[in-house]
Amino acid sequence: MIKFLDLYQINQNHREDLVTAFERVLDSGWYIMGKELTKFEEEFANYCGVKYCIGVANGLDALILIIKAYKELGVFKDGDEILVPSNTYIASILAISANNLNPILVEPDINTYNIDPARIESLITNKTVAILPVHLYGQLCDMDAITEIAKKHNLKVIEDCAQSHGATDLIGRKAGNLGDAAGFSFYPGKNLGALGDAGAITTSDSKLAETLRALLNYGSHVKYQNKFKGINSRLDELQAALLSVKLEKLDEETEYKRKIAETYLREIKNPAIILPNVKNSAAHVWHLFVIRTENRAGLQDYLAQNGVQTVIHYPIPPHKQLAYKEWNDLSFPISENIHDHVLSLPISPVLSPEDVAEIIAIINKW
Ligand SMILES: *Cc1c(COP(=O)(O)O)cnc(C)c1O
């Protein structure tokens, strides 16, 4: 069986350094808000090219806290609207609802699966305060077009970078540095994955960063003094130390995944399969390699019978979820088409060239 994602093997590749980091934290006697967190925050800010990185407990909290901070700063208020892609993972949308703002769904471009800038402007109202682009599956959105619209209408741009660590635009700017603030997830299966839950916010806005630092720690800048009704969403020393280890190898692992993606793109020749579109190689970090096909269930069963595990990202669009009953009767045909036909093939830093060749041969025989 070729696994969709072999997390055991992925982390075994870093075993020695992870164990060293674990022992260092264990023996430090200091487990929350210490040197390891500061070190990782500096490293990740440098990596993304921003002034500040703020570690948090997970990717959803990262997005929730950014919006909450803009509320505390008086930039957003209850009932305001944020434009978000209709085919994203539901977390991007939950972050808006959790703050009592209204998510406004925007259909994606069927070729890139990312929010379609051409559909944004007609949805802007006098309540719109932000655009929340999601670099889905690891490929950057059209940030030039999005930034231009945001500037024109005085909107904030909040990037959801949970799937796009290290994705780089044509002038060398990285995901996390392409808007006003960005949320990252380090969930174990993400391109930069912790050994548990973890996340971060990146921004170059000092006021926002300062507010976020308090909000994630009970709303407190000074111990036992609470300026805001905050939450506890700290990134602990252990995960920070482990993430520092894995960040060192992130670019190498991404390059390896790019090679796999190039091989799939070059050698999958089955006319029943629609391959992903790549605009520029650096702008895609291949969190997922997502194909589309009319008979998805047939292909998934066939691959399983032939020993290849695949996953659907995602089977139900957000507007059809019970959590958003109020949207269940709305129609987002592009998203529905995507959710009905996408299938993710194995791609990872530990998928061997032999496995890739085997997967391609099996698919081409279908
Ligand atoms: C994983 C993910 C999140 C949430 O991250 P968690 O760390 O699981 O909370 C948010 N947005 C997108 C697009 C994701 O893929």
Automatic annotation (TrEMBL):
It is an enzyme of class 2 (transferase). One of its GO terms (molecular function) is pyridoxal phosphate binding. The keyword Transferase applies. The lineage of its organism: Bacteria, Pseudomonadati, Bacteroidota, Flavobacteriia, Flavobacteriales. The gene is fdtB_2. InterPro entries: DegT/StrS_aminotransferase (IPR000653), PyrdxlP-dep_Trfase (IPR015424), PyrdxlP-dep_Trfase_major (IPR015421), PyrdxlP-dep_Trfase_small (IPR015422). Keywords: Aminotransferase, Pyridoxal phosphate, Transferase. SUPFAM superfamilies: PLP-dependent transferases. Pfam families: DegT_DnrJ_EryC1 (PF01041). Belongs to the DegT/DnrJ/EryC1 family. Signal peptide: none annotated. The active site is at K190. GO terms for biological process: polysaccharide biosynthetic process. This is dTDP-3-amino-3,6-dideoxy-alpha-D-galactopyranose transaminase. Gene3D superfamilies: Aspartate Aminotransferase, domain 1, Type I PLP-dependent aspartate aminotransferase-like (Major domain). The modification N6-(pyridoxal phosphate)lysine is found at K190.
